[in-house]
Sequence to fold (645 residues):
Amino acid sequence: MAGITGKDAVLSEYARKLETLDAPKGRSLTQDAIRRLARNKAAVLSIFVVGFIILFAFVGPYFLPWTYDKIDWSGIRKPPNFEAGHFAGTDQNGRDMLARIMQGTQMSLIVAGVATLVSVFIGVCYGAIAGYFGGKVDAVMMRFVDIMYALPYILFVIILVVIFGRNPVLLFVGIGCLEWLTMARIVRGQTMSIKEREFVEAAKAGGAKPWTIIFRHIVPNLTGPVVIYATLTVPEIILTESFLSYLGLGVQEPQTSLGTLISFGAPVAETLPWMLIGPAVVLVSLLLCLTYIGDGLRDALDPKDR
Amino acid sequence: MDQTPINLLEIKDLKKTFSISGGLFSRRLTLTALENINFTIRQGETLGIVGESGCGKSTLGRCILQLLAPDEGQVLWLGQDLTRLPAEEMRQRRADLQIIFQDPLASLNPRMTVGEIIADPLRTLRPELNKDERRARVLKTMEAVGLLPEMINRYPHEFSGGQAQRIGIARALITEPKLIVCDEPVSALDVSIQAQILNLLAELKDEFGLTLIFISHNLSVVRHVSDRILVLYLGRIVELATGDEIYEDPKHPYTRALLTAVPIPDPRLARQRNIDALKGEIPSPINPPSGCTFRTRCRFAKPFCAETRPPLERIEDGRLVACHRWREIEVPVEAVLGV
Fold:
């Protein structure tokens, strides 16, 4: 029936729209957070710098004439020499420092990434389960965490290294397995407050099983604190790895990491300064940027309820 | 349709306590939140539950739904005791018993879209439905509660309180329940929105043949929706009667006091009214008064009120009152309501 006012046309258009259901997308909390993060200049700059360092570490080696383990017998302990292709000089063994810095950065980034993922995974699952079930389960699980806290982690790393040999991957996993303790505590605390919220009760009333409640309703709401803490864990792990490498428990020659490079560069800083400056600059800028990103994320994901 | 309506839900001797640990070296305290709760709900009726903050209204609602496990007593759903049901069977039964919460925004998961929130009970209770069928039901329910279908992909923080409460109602409705516990569904909303939500609940009740338990501290709201009203004080039933009886002839002094506390929007009437405001605070449920728990605030209390607890007496036509002196108290309704 043709209408006089043209209302029919509008309505049938609306009905057609409903059939195809091109409902507009809402703004999720994550999108909101990204928008806020993008407004933070220091954080955006830091993201670019970290991105550049990642590219530098993983793509850079393909553009160099020297590999990290190749010895240049004509250039031992030499300052930067552009003609020979040693852009950052060479070390005592005649290996190209720039190639070694790239490899070391690679190693440190992989350690940090793997260990952080492991610690986030274990920490979130452990903390959420302890926090949600509470009572005796919680008491037993958290006392275990307390005990682990009380033991010196260096001891664990040494035991791991003794048992499984000096396998870098294992070391990363080992560090991750120790780093999760703090994450578990943070997640447990958050879970205990979230589980009292009404939407969790609503999920229970909707027949959801405990595991569904934990992983569909509680864990997504932990994003803020977990992401913030994870970004702050990354520099911590890089430092831990540097420390372990310094003690000789980390990566093995000829492979290297930022910590190893610095530990070799430090004693000769006066005579061969390029051996310290290069890795130190990369490490410091990486740590600084990650801290800024962590800060920016904390502001962006500020857990004030919206 | 003049057959007697069946008893949908029967509560028998329900008791719920919470234990409060007073630290490592002090002894544990017990808070009796509910005691001696007995009542039945007939199919299709709306039972209002009123009382002050902390009297156990919400605890009662949650005990009925088994969101809190009662310490003693039975919750009989069509004759079947829910408190003894294995966890898995209880989960299945949840399709029949749903809840609407007080704080509409807090009751919606901020990380899920409206469509996901409403569909959530279906995912667990009706796993046989596929994605499209779920979506179709979500849209149908959204329409029933007055939400536009294009809102399906939005997130809770983009809605106002009234709309958020509609989402909460849609989530409760989607499993096609028989009973919905409304836990102060309008007290967090603007007055203008309250009326909308109350009317919506009334419409939905007729449309889907629901039975409602309506919890509120606001007597005028409860009267608007309820067939019968249950008055709680310190976790005990003090009066149970139909809405008209409660309003025109309150028997218990506490009910009376509550009624006089209802504001009247006419200043002239309000001035004439004989205010019978409650004195003092509600006593601590950890250490309730002996005998009649209301005696500490009751105008009509006599020494013997402190000795024995008044039983819940059945008086004319099914009304229940728990007061030693209800017969002696003259309650001039006009004086109470100011009309």
